[in-house]
Amino acid sequence: MSVDLAVVDPKAPVATKLSPQQTWDEQLRKFERYAVEIFTALGPELGTRATREASQRFIHALFNATNGFESGRHTLNLLSTECQSGPACREAHVVEGPIRFLGLCERHSFLLFGHAYVGYVARERIMGICRLRQLVQLLTVQFIGQEMIRQQIADAIETLLQPLGVAVYLETDHHCAHMQAPSRPVSHWMVWRGNYSLNSALQAEFMSACGLEG
Fold first, then answer.
1. Structural contact between residues 132 and 174, judged by C-beta atoms closer than 8 angstroms
2. Are 160 and 125 in contact (CB under 8 A)?
């Protein structure tokens, strides 16, 4: 459809383009209306003092629970290494855990949480303990499957540090599993890469350092 610009009144008010924040607020209000429809269909009364703002709190909670990786892999570059060359960086065995993580199950959107234990054998770069914790939390605050968390953590460490080996051990728990079987135990997931996959003594050292044996 064509528009005849000659008929536009030059004195008519010009529509102001929405700022990013205004657009964001508009989107939030739309999502909150969707949440009201869902809650109404499920039965809770939304007009009480306790539930009056339930839809807003629900939507904001979803964004907070999935914002860890919103800027993509570029965000990983902010997790700088503390040692990038020299003898002190080589062959160091770095182990950290438990690192508590929290995200949303990609299958049912319920909470998925647990603890991660991470280890690596440095080649030329070392990432400090605080950075390792930030890395795990950054990668897990999103919609994610528990089977993939360990792989993503290992992939990120390999990308950032190019280590000689990476180990990731997870203890995971999530609400959707408990709804299906209330007494279902915590799941355990492990990945060995590089030197860890070839050296059982190194695996035992990692497990011992994490306090996972005995």
1. no
2. yes
Residue whose tokens read 């960086």: 89
**In the structure, what pLDDT confidence band is assigned to residue 189 with cuts at 50, 70 and 90?**
confident
Q: Which of 54-58, 74-78, 97-101, 103-107 has the lowest mean pLDDT?
A: 74-78
pTM attached to this predicted model: 0.69
Amino acid at 73: R
Q: Report the first-to-last Cα separation within the chain, whole angstroms.
A: 75
Number of Cβ within 10 Å of residue 188's Cβ equals 11
Q: Would you tell me the crossing angle of helices 129-140 and 146-161 to the nearest 10 degrees?
A: 140
Q: How confident is the model at residue 179 (pLDDT cuts 50, 70, 90)?
A: low
Looking at 3.30.450.40, 1.20.1600.10, 3.30.1130.10, 3.40.50.360, the CATH number of the domain 72-209 comes to 3.30.1130.10
Report how far residue 212's alpha carbon sits from residue 214's, in angstroms, rounded to the nearest whole number.
7
The span from the CA of 86 to the CA of 125, in Å, is: 9
Strand partners, 83: 126
What type of residue is 58?
Answer: F
List, in sequence order, every residue forming a beta bridge with 100; answer none if it has no partner: 115
Is the model more confident about 193 or about 61? Answer: 193
